[in-house]
Amino acid sequence: MATPRIHTKPSALLAQLTQAAVGIGGEPAWPATAPTQADVNAEATNLNNDLTEIETMKAQLAAKRKAMHTKCDHGVETMKKLDSITDALYGPDGPEKENFGLPPKKKPGGPSVPLVQVIITKVTDGTAPASIFVDWDSVDGAAAYQIEWFMNSITGTPIGNAAVSESEFEIHGLQSKVQYWIHVRAIRGSEYGTWSDPATRVANL
């Protein structure tokens, strides 16, 4: 694929504007009706400011996501304590557990909820360079999720995989500007759900 004469990718366009301003400044016969060096420099400055702001927002988002996960972990520990207390008060299968947002536990031997196919809802740039953030709907009865990613298509051996307890994951260590295919499935012990339909995205710079 030929390199575009005028870039639309912000970082590449910024470099092009910067170079253009230098060219204008060194051109003695530059037309009075054409964009001036100051005009082009202003466009480059505005674009650079927006790029800097976006990078700051990415860092803030990463910090917020980490804080959210920490608070979620604390919430899980609190609910585990409530689960244990309500087990002692009402029994593991007592309907009173519903009053605390906890469904009664099924007695051993009861039917388990089948693991349905995962639905990927979002695939975006990650917070770090060459990363992809994947989000999907949680599956009832899932103990965890398995995620795999491939280069070029969902065939052969994945180039990476992970098992996670939450319904989201950020893939790191990818190659910038390379397209990746991703799928996810729910797991519970030795039971595996159906793989999701594949999602694809080009890794960010």
Question: Can you characterise this structure?
Answer:
- The structure is a single chain.
- The chain has 205 residues and is an alpha+beta fold.
- The protein folds into two domains: 1-108, no CATH class; 120-202, Immunoglobulins (Immunoglobulin-like, Sandwich), CATH 2.60.40.10.
- The protein has two helices and eight strands; from the N terminus they run ααββββββββ.
- Strands 3, 4, 6, 7 and 8 form a five-stranded antiparallel beta sheet that branches. A three-stranded antiparallel beta sheet has the order 1-2-5, with no helix packed on it.
- β6 and β7 (191-192) form a beta hairpin.
- α1 runs antiparallel to α2 (37-90).
- The longest helix is centred in the first third of the chain and has 54 residues, at 37-90.
- The chain is elongated.
- The mean pLDDT is 90.
Task: Give a brief rundown of this model.
This protein is α+β, with helices and mostly antiparallel strands and 205 residues long.
